[in-house]
Amino acid sequence: MRYRGGGWRQAARWFMVLAALLVAAGPAPAKEPRSGAWVDYSLGPVERLRELYPDASSLPAPYAALYPDLSATVAHFTRQSLVRDGVEDPVVEVHRVSAPDGDALRLRLSPVNATTAQYATLHPQFVGPGLGGQALRGAQACQAEPGCWDPHPDPGEPWAFFLPLGLPLATQQAVLFLDYPPVPALTGKDYLNNFTLCRWGRILGAAGIEDPHAFEAIVDARPLAAPGSGEEPWLPDPMRWFDDPSGQAGDYLSPMLAFLAGVEREGGERSRPVAVFGKPARDTWARIVGRPSVEVMDVGRTALQSGAPDTPWIATNHPVVTTYQTCPDPDDEAASGSQYRDDQLLPDLQKDLVAGCWLKAMTGDDPPSASVARETCRARWADAPGARERQMLCVQAKLDDDDAAARCDSYAEAWRYCSAHAAQPCASRDCRYDPDWVREPVPPPAQRPVGWADTCNQYRPGG
Asked: 51 is in which domain, residue-wise?
């Protein structure tokens, strides 16, 4: 159990929930799963689920063929969530059953354990009227408003309603607040199937997090898949359409954040931390927490629901900001005087590592205050990094650099470059090094940070 906020009382609750499910399961099915029992629950009416899950009946034409069968889609994303919740080899059965008000989907999960037992409650809530249903309500209200939904369409990548499916529901340690998922997350049938989340997983590994999936429960300010760049002028106002308790649109963002942060469970003792990424998400977060603005490296605490424990949070750059950055060019006077500088590779990377380090610190057994955690992480990764940290920063910078000539193509090459150049990523504007100057051999895969076997370049444009 990755989230440790409940102690023995939480363990006792899991035992009682598990016992109740085993009793309710009744006689064993003809073909028993490995544990001899199923977690069995109804997810909801088929017609409602067709709108909440990607389905040929509700998707724009370019995506419809990818999702021809609702039961298979629900099974696919449920299995993804279970795996990312740490369940090994989960079995997911989805059955269409008759109900008085129309057909419904009933799920059976195996093995039965403390995590899968929670799905009987959490999964129907996630797609229920108060959470996923509110996101859909906001999208439908925007679609009914002239000029609101996809006013500048890309024929190949039209907008599509898309909840954060296939991510942890039960054992997550943190929540990530971003702007919207890119279309490849929808077409790849995987919310993490994009450069943004692939790279962020590497950052979490560098910060010492052993299971990045536990830190990848996501809420987007706009629950819609859209082209990955150039959409900001056209996107709907998140607060107007997706955080509206008046009932005119969807009341989704604050309730879903509270749900995934665990303020309605875990005995109300503690909230999981939230990390806020990128300016659009920071602007939305500022309105949620009632501040004039939220800037990079700001931290705070806020109650996401009345009477709930305060949720600690940190704001940072978008997870891929460094991939638009390079080393400083002393000959480029225009860049050095520009309002929007693109030569902040190392400083921006240090902020990423501070944020990843902060998340790790805030999910420990006895977390410090949000500001103390930030200053401790800032000292480690930005103000006075040690030799190990400098080498890790250099390696990551040589994988991120927006200058293709300066970027290294693999972890091993980046390591050798940094070892030969005293961990200075901007020692040259290439990836060349003298082998005689390499001071430390490349660590074997088992000794590298989690996720560093993948450069993520398969997702990167031109990668």
From this structure: 18-128
Residue (of 279, 191, 275, 284) closest to 236 by Cα position: 284
Considering the domain boundaries, does residue 37 fall inside one? yes
SS3 category, 226: strand
Residues 115 and 169 in one domain: no
Domain boundary residue, one of 109, 128, 147: 128
Give 58: exposed, middle or buried? Use CB within 10 Å, 0-12, 13-18, 19+: middle
176 in the same domain as 27:
no
Q: Assess if residue 38 is contained within a domain.
A: yes
What span, in angstroms and rounded, lies between the C-alpha atoms of 415 and 438? 9
User: Helix, strand, or coil here: 74?
Assistant: helix
Q: What is the pTM of this model?
A: 0.89
* Structural domain count, the chain: 2
Please, what is the end-to-end C-alpha distance for the chain in angstroms? 37
Residue pLDDT, tens place only, 132-162? 999 999 999 999 999 999 999 998 999 999 9
Angle ∠(172,176,179) on CA atoms, nearest 5: 145
Tokens 């990843």 belong to residue: 356
Of the candidates 156, 177, 290, which has an alpha carbon nearest to the alpha carbon of residue 223? 177
Residue 418 lies in a domain: yes
Both 273 and 372 in one domain: the answer is: yes
Angle at 418 between CA 415 and CA 422, to 5 degrees: 145
Q: How many other C-beta atoms can be found within 10 angstroms of the C-beta atom of residue 113?
A: 17
Q: Is the pLDDT of residue 291 over 60?
A: yes
Greatest pairwise CA separation for the chain in angstroms? 77
Q: Does 181 share its domain with 34?
A: no
pLDDT at position 151, please?
A: 96
Report the candidate in 201, 243, 234 with the shortest Cα–Cα distance to residue 218.
Answer: 201
Q: Which of 128, 144, 169 is the last residue of a domain?
A: 128
Give the C-alpha separation, 304 to 263, whole Å: 8
pLDDT digits (tens, 9 = 90+) for 34-54: 445 899 999 999 999 999 999
Q: Which two tokens stand for residue 34?
A: 């490995």
Give the CATH number, domain containing residue 359.
Answer: 3.40.470.10
